[in-house]
Design brief:
The protein is an all-alpha fold and 254 residues long. The chain is built from ten helices and two strands, in the order αββααααααααα. It has one domain. It has helices spanning 2-21, 44-54, 60-76, 85-93, 99-118, 122-141, 148-163, 165-186, 193-210, 214-247, and strands at residues 31-33, 39-41. The protein has a two-stranded antiparallel ribbon.
Length: 254
């Protein structure tokens, strides 16, 4: 497992260097302004997503798909102010397919694909899909400040190492990639974006699936659904408060 983590970390660092030296489509496509108003690149996302996919064995393709869906939202959704599950579902009900909706359904499909590869019975496959997609969404949900999402991956992945087997290997892959981008993330040189958050989160979810039976899967699925609902409400409340301050001519933080 240590070897898996080290190899994934090395692959991530190499990928990060290559992307920075040869930025597809020009640097402007890979730059964003973070919460502090600083320009940071998004290279840590694709680098970690590709590395964790390569280091995750039979579910690597599904994890890469989760990262691709996140990348689509990173690029196309950058101009869309709507955030949260309810906002995208509301747009869908009115006939508009947003980049966020594409991401939600795409990551869900990736979760089900990975779950189908890891479990044998139909019920377990579905529960596994919910856990994998839910964990991917959870990691993305906490990615609100430098180091938050990457730190969550490192903290939540640590117990999986103790299980050994495929669960341990998947945890090691996620943690190796997360550790590799942590310095750049904390220093606000790069961010993992939706690309990295969903790939790393899906890898953590796959580790949970590999290490649990039906009862454990059901418990994790219920907790993740509850966290998603709560997180969406908190995000909506924060956005409403921010808009109220802006309309009143004051800054939301001061």
């Amino acid at each position: 497992m240590i070897n898996r983590a080290a190899l994934t970390a090395l692959t991530t660092r190499v990928g990060l260097s290559v992307l920075r030296a040869n930025t597809p489509g020009g640097r402007h496509r890979w730059e964003r302004t973070n919460h502090a108003g600083r320009a940071v690149d998004l290279c840590a996302g694709p680098a970690s997503a590709l590395a964790v996919a390569l280091g995750s064995g039979r579910v690597g393709g599904a994890l890469f798909l989760a990262g691709v869906c996140g990348a689509y939202d990173d690029v196309v959704g950058a101009r869309d102010p709507r955030r949260g599950f309810r906002a995208h579902m509301s747009a869908l009900r009115h006939g508009e397919v947003t980049s966020g909706a594409v991401k939600l359904f795409g990551v869900g499909a990736a979760g089900l694909l990975a779950g189908a590869l890891l479990k044998e019975r139909a019920v377990d496959k579905v529960l596994a899909g919910v856990v994998i997609a839910g964990t991917a969404h959870f990691v993305n949900l906490v990615d609100v400040r430098p180091g938050r999402a990457v730190g969550a991956v490192l903290a939540l992945g640590a117990p999986g190492l103790l299980r050994g087997g495929e669960a341990g290997e998947l945890s090691a892959a996620a943690m190796g990639a997360a550790a590799a981008v942590l310095p750049d993330d904390v220093a606000e040189r790069s961010m993992i974006g939706d690309t990295g958050a969903h790939a790393l989160g899906a890898a953590l979810g796959a580790a949970v699936v590999a290490g649990n039976g039906r009862a454990g899967l059901a418990a994790h699925a219920a907790a993740l659904v509850a966290a998603t609902v709560y997180g969406d409400k908190v995000s909506e409340a924060a956005r409403s408060l921010s808009l109220a301050h802006i309309r009143a001519g004051s800054h939301p933080c001061g």
